[in-house]
Amino acid sequence: AQSVSQHNHHVILSEAASLELGCNYSYGGTVNLFWYVQYPGQHLQLLLKYFSGDPLVKGIKGFEAEFIKSKFSFNLRKPSVQWSDTAEYFCAVSHYGGATNKLIFGTGTLLAVQP
Amino acid sequence: KAGVTQTPRYLIKTRGQQVTLSCSPISGHRSVSWYQQTPGQGLQFLFEYFSETQRNKGNFPGRFSGRQFSNSRSEMNVSTLELGDSALYLCASSWGQGQGGSPLHFGNGTRLTVT
């Protein structure tokens, strides 16, 4: 079955600390990969996406993610977090090349950044 | 440009009743998807519509249905409500089908509580 695993459910960091959130997927085929973020009281919004090409993708607000095909992973990173990064982060996967918007989401990681 | 608009924001219904949720996509977007978000199951895909046709459906019972109108606005309906249907229902729109160059834009959701 297709699935996405986010192993960190709750992460607490101090400002300026580095961040890495894990994401692994199980999918029988080529995939598109995404990270979405939900800030408190706001809607889900796209942080970054990977379709093909360079496995290191850069997104908004200094976030980046690396696709490692052999490990079925797409970890999210940021070298120095800010208090404003406090949010819930969701990893998601869809079928590459498919004419569908169906996303399979992980259960999310709640990040709290302490000032 | 206005974002994805979902109405109502909150709903309280009784078991056995039915409910209709509405979604107005971003102007020009032709694809609308629906997701159910719960603390236990996370974000789960319900269905997606493109040009008034259902293109994909998630693993939900037939009590969950939807439709899309010619102006791309969409509604979803849940009949014979159960306590387990309590959730945040999210609508997302995009310009076309697939994730090629058009990410999903999410609304703020409709919070449904079934008592």
Description of the structure:
The complex is a heterodimer of chains A (115) and B (115). Chain A has 115 residues and is mostly beta strands. Chain A has strands spanning 3-5, 10-14, 19-21, 24-26, 31-38, 45-50, 56-58, 64-68, 73-78, 87-95, 104-105, 109-114. In chain A, 34% of the residues are buried. The radius of gyration of chain B is 13 Å and the shape is globular. Chain A binds chain B through residues 32, 34, 36, 42-46, 49, 51, 90, 92, 94, 97-108, and chain B through 3-4, 31, 33, 35, 42-45, 48, 55-56, 58, 90, 92, 94, 97-100, 103-109.
Helix and strand topology:
The complex is a heterodimer of chains A (115) and B (115).
Chain A: E1 3-5, E2 10-14, E3 19-21, E4 24-26, E5 31-38, E6 45-50, E7 56-58, E8 64-68, E9 73-78, E10 87-95, E11 104-105, E12 109-114
Parallel strand pairs in A: 2-12
Antiparallel strand pairs in A: 1-4, 3-9, 5-6, 5-10, 7-8, 8-9, 10-11, 10-12
Chain B: E1 5-7, E2 10-13, E3 19-24, E4 31-38, E5 42-50, E6 53-57, E7 64-68, E8 74-78, E9 87-94, E10 105-106, E11 110-114
Parallel strand pairs in B: 2-11
Antiparallel strand pairs in B: 1-3, 3-8, 4-5, 4-9, 5-6, 7-8, 9-10, 9-11
Catalogue the unreliable spans of chain B: none
SSE order of chain B: EEEEEEEEEEE
What gross morphology of chain B would you assign? globular
Number of strands of chain B: 11
The radius of gyration of chain B is: 13 Å
Please state the structural category of chain A: mainly beta
Percentage of residues in strands of chain B: over 45%
Mean pLDDT of chain A: 93
**Sheet with the most strands, sense and barrel status of chain B:** 7 strands, mixed
Report the order of strands and helices of chain A. EEEEEEEEEEEE
Measured on Cα atoms, how large is the radius of gyration of chain A? 14 Å
- Specify the number of helices of chain B: 0
- Continuous helix count of chain A: 0
